[in-house]
Amino acid sequence: MNITDSQIIEKVRNGLDTVDEQARECGITMGCGGCYSLVKKIIKEEKNKRMSKTVRVFKLVSEHIDSPDGTDSYEMPKGWRAITMDELAHTHFNNITPEFIEHRQFNWDNNTPPYGKKRIIAQLYWYPDKTGVAFHKEWVYNPTKREGQWELFYFAFGCKHQFKELSPEESRVRGIAHYGNCWHVHECQLCKYTNSYDSSD
Ligand SMILES: [Zn+2]
User: Fold this and answer.
1) 126: which DSSP letter?
2) Which domains does the chain carry?
3) From the CA of 194, how far away is ligand 1's center (Å)?
4) 196 C-alpha to center of ligand 1: Å?
């Protein structure tokens, strides 16, 4: 199937911004697989160009429209949990650019000390897999020292993914493109989120 650079760029602008999506939609790269890296490069360049626009859109979205998990701006995100700094280091934080940054305030009713019932005022960082991390700061008074200080609390939310690799056949049944031996498709057993990557890169 013949497809030009400008047709690929046009599709990116219409929201098909991964090779997978373009392959599903119009069959590109599905034949010999040879043009896979070329298509990937064109898509990447186009996405880089529109990056500043994307950030602006998400800022607007964060002010009044539904969040990725469907919860409202005054509700606790699904799967909300306190994490330690070490657990934070094992999240997407610092590895993946957030898709969406949101300022949110809500009440968190928790039985586990030292948290208890808290008014959370947090900055939420949403990643493309609908999970995220959040930071909440609080002025904590120490009666012994008779002084207070700002303390930072770390949180995670969304699914705790349990990934299992799908075979080419299982991928096909789900409508996910599979490009062969170096290609890996993983599906979360809990939320069914899938991701695909090429281990030959
Ligand atoms: Zn999951």
Assistant:
1) E
2) 5-64 (1.10.10), 81-157 (no CATH), 163-198 (no CATH)
3) 8
4) 14
77 CA distance to ligand 1 middle (Å): 15
Beta-sheet strands, E only, within the chain: 81-83, 100-109, 117-126, 132-142, 147-157, 163-166, 183-188, 194-198
What is the Å distance from ligand 1's center to 101 Cα?
20
62 CA distance to ligand 1 middle (Å): 23
**CA 163 – ligand 1 centroid, Å:** 7
Is residue 29 within 8 A of residue 39, CB to CB? The reply is: yes
Tokens of 152: 């930072």
Mind listing the pLDDT tens digit for each residue in 122-149? 989 988 888 999 999 999 898 999 999 9
pLDDT tens sequence across 58-92: 554 555 566 788 888 788 999 999 999 999 999 98
Q: In this structure, what token pair is assigned to residue 166?
A: 């799908």
pTM for the model stands at 0.64
